[in-house]
Amino acid sequence: MKKITIALLLFIAAIGAQAQLLWKISGNGLQKPSYIIGTYHLAPVSFTDSIKGLKEALTAAEQVYGEVVTADMTSPGNLQKMQAAMMLPEGQTLDKLYTTDEMARINAALKSILGADMTNPILSQQLGKLTPQALYTQLGLLIYLKKHPGFNPNEGFDAYFQKEATAKGKPVGGLETVDFQINTLLKGLSLERQKELLLCLADNLSFNEEQTEKVVNAFFTQDLDGIKAAMDAKLNNTCDGTPEEEEMLIYGRNDNWMKQMPEIMKQKSTFFAVGAGHLPGERGLLAQLKKAGYTVERVK
Question: Does the N-terminal or the C-terminal CB of the chain have fewer CB atoms within 10 Å?
């Protein structure tokens, strides 16, 4: 029993080593420390109260950087670009991309998530002209909302940090442009691959629902390793992300951010807020910052 208790304590300690979303970056010539937090775009702003040292770090930082400047995303021009990127070409609809059997599988998933499918004319009008990637993204959102209702898009966790900075007259910046995110996240995959992945979601709905819950639970317990484990879960078939897709969506972006962050931190103490999935792992931002010579430690 004593051996079991010791082993359990060591396991808890190992988990606790990465049980933190907010980290301080110092050393390597920085005059003032900077900070980085892992975010989840569907988390409520109220969760900020559960993160130790967050308000103090946000106050101490002289500027805030996100993946993108959130205010830019809501400009009329960029909203129009995003909407256009989510739509199929004129005259094309999802039911023309898929066979009757494939549409039946997609409709079964819609029925499970929404209680209705695209045999409903209203739903067909709303969803039928979306690209497979756009519908995939919308279904991912709906899978979350099914178990976690009440999400307020006007009080997003990601946008909170930039809103706070703007309210206090601090500069706000983005590591990527809106155009880059549109081209990467909405247009980065071929139409054939988009078609395949939407079918993968429909055919493996339970797996995707469980994966979403694991990511959510890991985020709210501030368990970065748990987030990575959930993101890395495999079906061991063509539904799994390819190395090229992971490079495009995660690791290549990490590398690009790391090229910018040293100069940004050198100029001003900075509070970085990026998706939590970008922090853990050998090519995650925390490991890359350490490798670059910075001291990276949990904010207590």
Answer: N
Determine how many CB atoms are found less than 10 A away from the CB of residue 50: 12
Nearest in space to 215 (alpha carbons), one of 200, 233, 188: 233
Q: Which residues contact 37 (CB under 8 A, 6 or more apart)?
A: 21, 22, 23, 51, 54, 57, 161, 271, 272, 273, 274
State how far the Cα of 265 lies from the Cα of 209, in Å rounded to an integer.
Answer: 38
Taking only the tens place, the pLDDT of each residue in 31-86 is 999 999 999 988 999 999 999 999 999 999 999 999 999 999 889 999 999 999 99
Distance CA 18, CA 38 (A): 12
Given this model, what pLDDT does residue 33 score? 98
Structure tokens at 243: 């190395």
Span 178-207, average pLDDT: 96
Look up residue 203 and give its two tokens: 């055919």
Cβ–Cβ < 8 Å for 85, 182: yes
Supply the pTM of this predicted model.
0.90
Residue 118: phi and psi, rounded to 5, are: -80, 10
Alpha-carbon distance 145 to 213, whole Å? 11
User: How long, in residues, is the chain?
Assistant: 300
**Using one digit for the tens of pLDDT, what is the confidence trace for 126-138?**
999 999 999 999 9
Query: What residue has token string 């106050």?
Result: 59
Token pair, residue 73, equals: 């995303």
First to last CA, the chain: 32
